[in-house]
Amino acid sequence: MHQPGLRERKKQRTRLALIDAGLELFLAQGYEATTIDQIAAAADVSPRTFFRYFATKEDLALHYVFENEMRILAELATRPSDELPFASLKHAFRKSLKAVEDATPEDTQRMLRTRRLLDATPSLVGRASSRTYAMERRMAEEIARRQGVELTCDIRPMMIVALLSTTLRVAFECQHRELTNAKDLVAVSESAMVFLERSLVPGWDDLTRPS
Question: PANTHER family, from UniProt (predicted)?
Answer without folding.
Answer: HTH-TYPE TRANSCRIPTIONAL REGULATOR RUTR (PTHR30055), MYCOFACTOCIN BIOSYNTHESIS TRANSCRIPTIONAL REGULATOR MFTR-RELATED (PTHR30055:SF238)
